[in-house]
UniProtKB/TrEMBL annotation:
GO molecular function: DNA-binding transcription factor activity; transcription cis-regulatory region binding
UniProt keyword list: DNA-binding, Transcription, Transcription regulation
Span of domain HTH lacI-type: 5-62
InterPro entries: HTH_LacI, LacI/GalR-like_sensor, Lambda_DNA-bd_dom_sf, Peripla_BP_I
Protein name: LacI family transcriptional regulator
SMART domains to which the protein is assigned, alphabetical: HTH_LACI
Amino acid sequence: MAKRASIRDIAEAMQVSISTISAVLNGKAAERRISDPLRDKILKYAKQINYQPNMLARGLRTGKSNIVCMLVEDISDPFFAAIAREMEKQMASIGYKIFYSSTENDLDIAQSLIQTYRDRQVDAYIIAPTPGLEKTIESLEAEQLPVVIFDRNLPKIETHNVLIDNLTGTLNATRQLVESGRKNIALVTLDSKQTQMMDRLKGYQDAIKNEKQKPIVLKLNYNRGVDDITPQLKDFFIKNASIDAILFTTNYLTASGLKALKNIGKSIPNDVAVIGYDDNTNFSLYTPTITAVSQPTKEIVVAIKNILQKLLTGKIKGKKETVLLPTTLIQRESS
């Protein structure tokens, strides 16, 4: 493999100092009073040999990598994938690149990834935290590294947060099912103590209590594929044959639930009304189309970028900032 060209190689070939080459390549030729002909000659030669800057070395010199890392549960999930796509655009607008990784909601994986990014001196962290990540985040903040938490928070520590009003999201979705005449409304959710899932459960419970209906709840373990949970869902729906509406608290639970309902011959919305969570393009392609609670992905990303930009430029000091954004219920044929 050919040796990677360095600033030293260019300096030797052009017979000028390394500092002159560095100034030109970093756009500081005018500041250093380097002549235009010499600047152009250096840039032409650098392009000719396909010079690529060593970003790690530049980061060591400047103390900045212009890289922000983002950790999410699963980058293939439609919600997190949409966040990642928009985040790339928003961070590029302020001169940063995004590196992202999946934690699989596993503490050990999350801690290992954060250490890897620390070793590479990334400038900031955007994290959808796993349970138990408090000490790691506190250590980042102790080093005065910018951190923004999103999707769910860690109540035991004070952080900058961008969150969704999940409680109102499921409250309104359940009310919509009640208003359409449904009497036996079930919730299919995850067996999770994370704040976003607890809020979605509470919103449903509050609406059901207000309407004096009986709660019907199925909690499933995280990290199960569609095929793994479909039998459990079928069994739950068969044992609770009076169910006439179902609210699912994630998009992948919705997909599994639709498969299970089809397998037992239930018609949507005639037999059972359905509302999903985390709207995505697939929901509008089903027959019938699926009503969903939509999270505002662009607004989430813009809020994260705005906080990070203030942190990176030293414009936030003292009290932590929390942004709470509303959901939208997108009405379609399934309810």
